[in-house]
């Protein structure tokens, strides 16, 4: 299996020319890299005006491996080839390194790039990509792969330290500024520049010409591996993250976790055409799947579709708590814990679960839980900015004083389990700690019922205190500042939580209304879900347009596999327009352009994509929105093999609407087909830097 690494964007707050001089100080060897024991310059050539320089080197490195591996490979050293292309005019350095030893068995390819920071010309950026492919190695392929990746990751963190060390050495030598390259104005100046070239031992200039070296090299765009595109375009840096930003806003990640995050962001960036959820959202879903990119992508895609279906992005603006919630719900935000995480207090023991279900229904309880989760996400972002440190989770304190058998009312438990399941799926890695206090003897019964619906990682964050144990050593004082301990737990901090208690039956809904409200957030949605497979390869929505000028709009998400989306207009008279499951209204004998026509260019939609679009009809009659199963991924300029699982069934969730021409008064440009973005969870990737 090919292993890849992609670094975050490192930023050196020094000019490019000074960084380049510090970089050159690393050669031929340095005590800071003890494994590097030799460096031979194979060629070194300049352009006529000295603005461009190509250098090729061979490095000798000590093999750091177990004794058995050394015995098998019969060598203590390995050799690598490095090619540097410095463009002083553009202020860029591109580096390509590959292994010379065992190159027929193992392929190691690394590409690095130094370039000027796009927002500050006095700063220098660095990015790094690497690929390891162990094709054959005496039956030890897996061992070599793990060993090589471990060694590579260990050395990555040293790179910035080494460069900063030599920048400090230059400063101690009095060198703090190197003037940028300027084109020579006279022939004599050109000769002076050429005289600076390294000479051979016999006094002659190295025979390799710059053009010849360029032809021999592999830095050209046409020879660039897709994994190692050097991102010279500003928009191509949208999915990059600066290492300082990661530490400051997302937390400490090891190099492989940083790499996984950037690769994950890149995949979502391609699927959503540049629109991205926030970096903290990406990291939460990635963490929840143990940094498995494919599983995280599938989970995130489903969650974003769920948010769209139920308009979750607007819940903070649109949700208004019913009077019964304001009067009887025993939960509220309360300062923070010792790790500066927002703290939510919830007196479950005082909550009338049956009363809430009978007054606001399961749907109302779920919306209330979602609002709390959305507020938690908003507060973590606010606290991150306020305290200038990464705060990505919030804490929950649950008081079980008063918990009794009425809390085990079966419909109430079922509603609780459903809410837990939805929250676990769509808000992973949001809870930092859960403190359960004053747990009664019956708590193990409730815990047995709900714990199976809680992720193992989340369960490990639960701390349970029976009786008054929370007041002793290892209790609340270890997690919450003394000044913030709530008054109802014996602390000095006043809280404004309702007392809760039984909700009057006069506020209950009728039985008919309560039954009708069950699972409303699942059933009451404008979106339709359909599966398309090889056996049922087509799904069509038949639309009857009464007058030209009507606008057909659509919004759909591809949940699994690839599909091709078409918009068709039927010219032929059709006796029956009732759609048949899995079959197309278009007869195979019909001729395109005569009996029907495609009024929009067909779109190949990949797993995970979200599509919005519209079409202004030019005639009345029958139109068709058509989704066709696509068994093979078709190249669209991106390798999607890593994004799409080998499933035999596609799933599409869609919504459509017809806007009559007399009702539409908007700008036609706003209805042009486009890929949709997100709202509350979304931002342009570049803004995060």
Set down the secondary structure blueprint:
Blueprint: E1 3-6, E2 10-12, H1 16-24, E3 36-46, E4 52-62, H2 67-73, E5 77-87, E6 92-99, E7 106-117, E8 120-134, H3 141-172, H4 187-194, H5 210-216, H6 243-250, H7 255-271, E9 275-277, H8 279-288, H9 293-309, H10 315-318, H11 323-328, E10 331-336, E11 342-346, H12 353-359, H13 361-387, E12 394-399, H14 410-426, E13 431-439, H15 443-450, H16 456-459, E14 462-466, H17 511-516, H18 520-523, E15 528-533, E16 538-545, E17 551-560, E18 562-570, E19 596-598, E20 603-605, E21 610-616, E22 621-630, E23 649-659, E24 674-675, E25 682-684
Parallel strand pairs: 11-12, 12-13, 13-14
Antiparallel strand pairs: 1-8, 2-8, 3-4, 4-5, 5-6, 6-7, 7-8, 9-25, 10-11, 15-23, 16-22, 17-21, 17-23, 18-19, 18-20, 18-22, 21-24
Fold and architecture overview:
Residues 2-175 form the PRELI/MSF1 domain. It comes from Cacopsylla melanoneura. The structure is a single chain. The protein is α+β, with helices and mostly antiparallel strands. The protein folds into four domains: 3-231, START domain (Alpha-D-Glucose-1,6-Bisphosphate, Chain A, domain 4, 2-Layer Sandwich), CATH 3.30.530.20; 243-313, Helicase, Ruva Protein, domain 3; 326-522, Phosphatidylinositol Transfer Protein Sec14p (3-Layer(aba) Sandwich); 528-688, GOLD domain (Jelly Rolls, Sandwich). Helices cover 29% and strands 26% of the residues. The protein is built from 18 helices and 25 strands. Strands 1, 2, 3, 4, 5, 6, 7 and 8 form an eight-stranded antiparallel β-sheet that branches. A five-stranded mixed β-sheet has the order 10-11-12-13-14, with helices on one face. It has a five-stranded antiparallel β-sheet with strand order 15-23-17-21-24, with helices on one face. A hairpin with a 5-residue loop joins strand 10 and strand 11. Helix 8 crosses helix 9 (293-309) and helix 12 (353-359) packs across helix 13. The longest helix has 32 residues, at 141-172. It is globular and about 90 Å long. Mean pLDDT is 82; it is low at 197-208, 212-236, 633-647 and 665-689.
